[in-house]
Amino acid sequence: MNKETQEHPWKLIYNQPAAIWEEALPLGNGHMGAMVFGGTAREQIQLNEDTLWSGFPRDTNNYEALRYLKRVRGLVTEGRYAEAEETINARMLGVNTQAYLPLGDLYLEHDGAENFSHYQRELDLDSGIAKVSYHTKTGEFTREAWISAPDGVCVIQAKSSVKGGLQLALSLDSLLKHSVELKGGNGLVLKGNCPTHIADNYHKDHPGAILYEDGLGLTFELHLQVILTGGSVEYTDGKLVISGADSAQLLLAAGTDYEELRSRASHLKKRSTAKNGNNLSLAESCEARLAAAAAKSYEELRDRHTEDHKRIFRRVDMDLGGRERDGLPTDERLMKYKAGQEDPALEALLFQYGRYLLMGSSRTGTQAANLQGIWNHHLTPPWNSNYTTNINTQMNYWLAEVGNLSELHEPLIDMIREVSETGARTAAVHYGARGWVAHHNVDLWRSSSPSGGDASWAFWPMGGVWLCRHLWEHYSFNPDAAYLAETAYPLMKGAALFCLDWLVEGPDGLLVTNPSTSPENRFMTKDGQPCSVSMGSAMDMSLIRELFEHCLHAVRILGVDSEFQQQLEEALSRLSPLKISNDGRLQEWNEDFAESEPGHRHVSHLYGLYPGEFINGRDTPELLEASRLSLQKRITSGGGHTGWSCAWLINLYARLKDGEAAYGFVRTLLSRSAYPNLFDAHPPFQIDGNFGAAAGIAEMLLQSHLGEISLLPALPDAWKNGSVKGLKARGGYELDIEWQNHKLVSAVIAASRDGICRLNYQQQELKVQRSDGTLLPAGNALEMKAGEVYLVTV
Ligand code: FUC
């Protein structure tokens, strides 16, 4: 259902340059990222490269940890939770992950542009091109910029309306150790080194937070080449000075020697899908990309980029009404929205922006989207801009499948494969267990050990188990037995083997995790102390149950591993179940503890409601009710206060089929947690909320868990008339849905595989016809063949 044309523009529009980074506009191809400020006298384009991290391949495992496991288990069994926590903190943790770093900046100084008028800048999500235009007394100046996935370069064109009117001074800079030199008369090369260590410096108390060591960290290069129409370029004071040109085309390529460093480390295997995984040196690879791009005309480069971009972006369209505001400046719309104005088109823009941002930060062969996607300008970024795998990394990919961006899931799947390799060592070293394990932080070097710090976040050997959900989701939306057999199942099996070894018998004879935490939350011990370590947290048990069930499903589909199947079935039957507290809430821990922070931002115990699915009205109505109560209590106690936490609430309420509550949190997120460029505010900027909110909006319109496709399951009053086209559903379906006066008008379903498609629209009987007009007998279970398209009406 790829669209030839897009009916409405999808644009972020501003009438002034960005004054702060969070007003600049993001570009990206998964490998390079850029933030375009749109300055006049001085334009700044801040750049990123996806493999530019601090650190080097090293072993972060704690070889002493296993010595204390038995002792800690005993303490937990005796209810001596605080002592168990102390022992973990002192003996069983590892070291922090490394940081994702900024590459550098391109500056364009435009003499005479201090005074300007008719200013406009925009980001067109549909073409993936950012534009700036303004007038000075000499004429009109325009710039456009994009980052091409097919050509692997960033392209910027600066143009003057007056012949020979372009005077620009170009320079490159970086916060990292670097030097800049002239290349070939019309280019610059910035060469730099990365620190070997960036320390978490949240409290600004680390005197050596940025450590360089000769010959140890990554090296990187950023190449710039200028192609002029008219005029001339000369090199002065480290800058390329363009005079008298009609237009200038700037090409940028960047890279690091990450693959080389990786291949030298015995504990890291060679990457199979690396973008720069050829035999070229770093410099040669940048030069080759620039030369190939320079050999193409500007129009050809632009066409290749827009064709590639639109091919993906246009798979989905959304109209929630109110599109007459689409031509207005985004920051003004946001201010009015914050003041209470309705703007459903801004909500649709937030959804499409989520899709755009995933395209910018996660493409085949690149690194997965980190805490800031691919956009970071800090040398010591918040939380190291790493992969936080106790919610944030997973939330980044909630949108991937339903948002018809399945192939953008691949970088995460690559990362899971790589973490399973380091994680197999961590499973053995830390826990004496089979399979593989990951904790709450992962970095470029695929650190799988616990980080340093505090057990409440660092001790959580379930990161890999949660990541495995994504392997299964990718299969559910794109059922492909080869992918299941070769990629998903072996990784899931490895994580399940770890869980089989990790589970122990609790006092009631049922299987639990011990020691166990519930991400970042604490309970009150009998002595009134906040503590995080006990046994069998709801999230641990939910994740393990789900993984075992997915593995069993896979085993049946693939017809393999009957012995393993038996072990899983037997363990499943003995897993400690979720519990309901005295006051009717879903218990976060195995015991009915009081929470130390009742409004905590994590809602880990509700995992089974979303993203999981085993808490639902059909199979577990009591747990569903208890989840609803837990959610209410969290929220009335102040929960949902960070961007991502609020985004999770949208999805949870969508699953509770409470469209009004879900919508309330869409409004909260956009009003409270969006910067002027619509980046999500934790605060500070953290991209998970963008992806989580977009996923939540989709979840309000379409759900496909529990073996059926549910149309408009949580449609709020605010979206009276509308349509969405191209969302994906589990089982390999694509849907267009239209509604009027809050009622379904029609749905078009396209099947990519043979199968039974079960539909649900408010339990009503639906009319179904084939594309040739033949009506099907009444009933909501449609037997569809690959390639068939059905029209459904009420
Ligand atoms: C988790 C969250 C924090 C933050 C961090 C990156 O630890 O609890 O709120 O999002 O990840």
Automatic annotation (TrEMBL):
Residue ranges constituting the Glycosyl hydrolase family 95 catalytic domain according to the UniProt record: 297-701
Organism of derivation: Paenibacillus borealis
Domain spans labelled Glycosyl hydrolase family 95 N-terminal: 12-260
Family annotation (Pfam families): Glyco_hyd_65N_2, Glyco_hydro_95_C, Glyco_hydro_95_cat
Gene3D superfamilies documented for this protein: 1.50.10.10, putative glycoside hydrolase family protein from bacillus halodurans
Segments forming domain Alpha fucosidase A-like C-terminal: 703-774
PANTHER family xrefs: ALPHA-L-FUCOSIDASE 2
InterPro entries per the UniProt record, alphabetical: 6-hairpin_glycosidase_sf (IPR008928), 6hp_glycosidase-like_sf (IPR012341), AFCA-like_C (IPR049053), Alpha-L-fucosidase (IPR016518), GH95_cat (IPR054363), GH95_N_dom (IPR027414)
Protein name per its UniProtKB record: Alpha-amylase
